[in-house]
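Q: I'm a student working through a structural biology exercise. My instructor gave each of us a protein and asked us to get a predicted structure, then write a short paragraph describing it. Mine is Putative WW-binding domain-containing protein. I'm not confident about reading structure output yet, so if you can add a plain explanation after the tokens, that would really help. Here is the sequence I was given:
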Amino acid sequence: MLSRVVTLGNVQTIVDVGFEDYGPDCDSMRITAFLDIPGQDNLTPLARLEKYAFSENIFNRQIIARGLLDVFRDFSNNEEDFLTVMEIVVRLSEDAEPTVRTELMEQIPPIAVFLQESRPNFPTAFSDYLMPIVVRYLTDPNNQVRKASQEALLILLEQELIAQNDIENKVCPILLDLSAPDSDDEYKVEAVNIICKMASMLSKTVIEHMLLPRFCELCGDGKLFQVRKVCAASFGDICNAVGQEATERFLIPKFFELCSDSVWGMRKACAECFMAVSYTTSPEVRRSKLSPLFISLISDPCRWVRQAAFQSLGPFISTFANPSSAGLYIREDGTLSIRPSAQDVASSSCQPEALTRLSQNENTTACVIEGIKDCHMSNCQGANSRFQSAEDIFNTFLYWRPPLPDISQDLELLQSKTEKREEGCSMSKAICKNCVASSEIKKVLESLQEHMDDPDVQAQVQVLSAALRAAQFESVNDYETKHTEERNGKLQNELSTFEASHATVEKNTFKLLRYGQCLPPFDIIPQPLLDQYLSMTDPARAQTVDTEIAKHCAYSLPGVALTLGRQNWHCLKDTYETLAADVQWKVRRTLAFSIHELAVILGDQLTAADLVPIFNGFLKDLDEVRIGVLKHLYDFLKLLHADKRREYLYQLQEFVVTDNSRNWRFRYKLAEQLILILELYNPNDVYDYLRHIALTLCSDKVSEVRWISFKLVVAILQKFYANNANALGLNFINELVARFRHCSKWIGRQAFAFICQAVVEEECMPVDHFVEHLLPSLLSLSSDPVPNVRVLLAKALRQTLLEKAYFKSVGNPHLEAVEETVLALQSDRDQDVQKYIIAISENSLRSVNSTTSTLNFLI
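A: Happy to help. First, here is the predicted structure for Putative WW-binding domain-containing protein. I'll explain a few features afterward.
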């Protein structure tokens, strides 16, 4: 960039040539190059800088402000000159022209970075000279200058260029002044916006002690709704910054006020950040306070508030999730994975000390089932003795199977009674001798009435009814004692009824308890939240709330399923099937992209029963839906049993055909997935089914699809030889030679060279097999009439073959043929072929020649 100074009248002006081409990437250009050009004024560069920095021409001052970084670099070697430049910058910051001040402020962040690198020489320069300018510009009367200052402040905070002392003594005080009740309205809105944005960049102590009280005060600002709206929109960030204790103590009351604000925009903003607020609260506050508050937002009279609330409903429910209760755990990379079988709750041993874990809702199916069985036997064998005392009568019953309500209090009672028993009594006998009273069983039966449409619940009601009738013997009077024998017969009838239904109960209980805790859905999340979520598929909701409400429901369904756990999948099954059959392809597409995650949550049994039919439907859907299944095809198939997975071998060929042949990315993604899927099938299945797909993709019209397909072919070869299926590998090689090496089109022959190069690079087959079955056909391409084929051959020789030790070793019978091919390509008439082959390193050629000479000497 060239700069020169011209005189217009009595004013000297800097004329820039090509100034508009200057950018941050142009390191060789300097805006302030004019300072080095000797002028008629005979001034030093520093004096010339001061002259133009305070010139009457605005353009001169703009150029100086825009080139301040170069100025600091030029004068940083001398401390005295550097401090003089700093003083000039401070004076320039007081320029009356807003554009000059804006240009100067935009240069502050890069200058701060430069000073950070030069801190040993100028440790306090930024804090003493530049930081006051940033703070002062926050109150500048010009709007553009203030915005530039706000952006610079956030950049400096994000890059941690501001000292903690400056934050507490310079930044926070000015923001508190600007956000004071008597401050200008425009400044107040800007100040609260900065406070909210910088919350994630400051320490918890600074926010809690300096900014949190003012934020709470601004949440109740009755003068400006814009201030309250900014607070509502950033409420989640503030909660995350201050932590759970401060959130529940100071922010939750203010959040309630904002959720009931008279302006619907405030309530909408609260609904949008509800998940972030819930995430920072305790489970008790989330259930007892935030859940009713969210229900009020869902029922808001304003449609826009209801729409935002329904969009946040699924994410809010997901904050109740506990992956461990669903038999899952979260890896370090954040993905869900199935809990190892060693941690399976169903495998826990039934020990006496397990009763304590039982009171914490960590029961095991085996303990409960065995305890019930022992109870049957003891009741049948000693019925007469049990009627001798009210304490020994069959007066208890415990059956753990959803959707029973929380019985932790009953379990505590059981535990207290168990302490009175003699030591060494097994857990099963302790459970049987300490059971729920008849009044408690009645309460359980009443809670189950609303779930009578579930066949499993009906079976459970029958069992509990039998237990209730048996427990009624607890109120034995004198008259009944005369008919003990008759009652014993009735009791045994009741127990026989219990035994008759036991097989079904045991089967259902074990199925539902085999993974983690079995809590009914209303013990995990409040029932009103679940009811509102299930209603999102109601067509009426699309009319009264949002036409895309079904899409939002589908988007958050995996999170809701994780929260409820696989044992409560029956609550979501109908909703999922409704969404999968939705007429909007966007809804089905959303489900298709997440079905593999849902399969991890549900486990192999529920996946095979409920997800596989829907997955099969997605395979035949529109390409927009199929792409969701295809992108995670490997992730879904690996969760299926081998016999179920094998059914999809033939269906994989359907992915080759698309609705639009121009949709080449679909076929590209198919090839990528097939490379991963190879490990799921045995070599015979790969040869019979996947080989044909790979060869078809290798002939695709789009080059990107062909190149990724060549890698698939190499992976198939590697699969064969890694599993000792050498015969299949040899057959596949012969097919490759016939299909590509002798292809009539030059693209096929070029593909053969690429495949051979990849085979050598990946070392996917023994080298003796390669040199016997592939190398002769590869070297014969040196006489191909198409230069592009010979270029790829030269590239393969240069980058791969001649870099392998095998082709440099003494005694290699194929070395002479390789050398002849290299010499032939070096004399090729095409310059591109010569460029590749001549570029072979001298070491490689020297090694080849040395090996050849050795062979000749030996001969």
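A: Here are two points you could use in your paragraph. Strands lie at 2-8, 11-17, 328-330, 336-338. The longest strand covers residues 2-8. It's a good idea to check both against the output above yourself.
Q: Great, thank you!
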